[in-house]
Amino acid sequence: xxxxxxxxxxxxxxxxxxxxxxxxxxxxxxxxxxxxxxxxxxxxxxxxxxxxxxxxxxxxxxxxxxxxxxxxxxxxxxxxxxxxxxxxxxxxxxxxxxxxxxxxxxxxxxxxxxxxxxxxxxxxxxxxxxxxxxxxxxxxxxxxxxxxxxxxxxxxxxxxxxxxxxxxxxxxxxxxxxxxxxxxxxxxxxxxxxxxxxxxxxxxxxxxxxxxxxxxxxxxxxxxxxxxxxxxxxxxxxxxxxxxxxxxxxxxxxxxxxxxxxxxxxxxxxxxxxxxxxxxxxxxxxxxxxxxxxxxxxxxxxxxxxxxxxxxxxxxxxxxxxxxxxxxxxxxxxxxxxxxxxxxxxxxxxxxxxxxxxxxxxxxxxxxxxxxxxxxxxxxxxxxxxxxxxxxxxxxxxxxxxxxxxxxxxxxxxxxxxxxxxxxxxxxxx
Amino acid sequence: xxxxxxxxxxxxxxxxxxxxxxxxxxxxxxxxxxxxxxxxxxxxxxxxxxxxxxxxxxxxxxxxxxxxxxxxxxxxxxxxxxxxxxxxxxxxxxxxxxxxxxxxxxxxxxxxxxxxxxxxxxxxxxxxxxxxxxxxxxxxxxxxxxxxxxxxxxxxxxxxxxxxxxx
Lengths: 430, 167
Fold this sequence. Notes:
The complex is a heterodimer of chains A (430) and B (167). With 430 residues, chain A is of the alpha/beta class. In chain A, 31% of the residues lie in helices and 17% in strands.
């Protein structure tokens, strides 16, 4: 019987010939990522060592990544103190993959990891962030864990008691229509599966559309797989994976291109015809409340957000700039752009995209998670509506439980910025 | 154990509902309880004013704890020693709960309203108000081992000491 990609990766990471769904395993970790919640991980890590008489040293400082992104620059004294505590820990332990709040290295963790070549096909990646699913885009088994579980990984270098997950195969074929994007594929899939349809399972992406898709688009798919409850999303690595790692991430060493067997056993197979997709909108207050843009009716928008680990890459900013160049953001609407990293920020600046967006009326923010999780930089007023390329629209998500958040692609966000109501980018905007 | 339902919730209760992102700068388990369900004002007020005794039950439908991996969502409920009875859970929340010792019970057919009296046994829950019985589904074995060890900190400490002895 053939194996899924995750069964093969877990077999390798546990030194076994094979593992099967339901086995409980203890895989060795290649990358262990945290952000500001590293402060809690440190607290729990020190707690593990309490009373042991052993010196608290992390298992391998070269495999730990800490990226400041959730609240940058610090929005409060409390955060600043947490960040200070983390910097001191990083220095004391010699943690190598640390990205501070700096224009020459910073950004959102799920962009920094791939961009810097930290992720390789076949890796086991864990992160104290649910969107750690993103890194499946490069063929890694990558999943979110809590802070205490990360403290355990820092101690032992393995993830304890991982149950080998079953896999849902999603096959996407057909050419995406103009101005319909990977974001629309994943929103459509979440609507189809529901917010719990993939709970405790992995989503493996296949089909022509995926093979032709850039790594940026694959990151969007895997990023939001968790919104259907998935442990991880994963794209079997191919020539595009290799191209991205060599050309964009500067990876030189040999790659272990683990792919699933042709006769692997899947729990469910879902087929999607990309050519028939319209732009999709996730309506308040759950990500699986998905409708086509033409079924939305007239929804006035107060704030447009383009950015985040989901859609803050150069192609996302490019489409927004293309649509908004020479146009104006509607008078009663404000527009915030959060590039996913400073590398992307600089590229968008060099290509003139940021200037086009500023001239249209957008505000360019520093790379970071920004208002996505409702901490700072763009909270909503009571009864206001946000249309956002981010990944969650739960009540209270963008900082106000009395506001509505709709999720969409960058093209829908840009077209809607001009009209001030949720709009279909395919119709052109007058 | 006999106890009472203090909050009844539906499907897809996210970690943003349990512990909103705007309070995430607070990380320590000793400090998180004050923000539990803070946007459910009435319930939060009852918690803060200590009107809800330990071992009281929150009953929810499917996918409790979906969304963010924030461990505060588990520590905030653990701080009040609440018991969660849900039809099923989101993966990371369930793991965080088991790791921290928050009691989470999987009961796929639970029917209960606020203020119902429950008797929680090992394999079933009896709703003393309605007289109905509901089977409990065991936690995944991989999680139960951690609970039995007294949580993930203790479990990891044990593994660490075993490793240190071998080397």
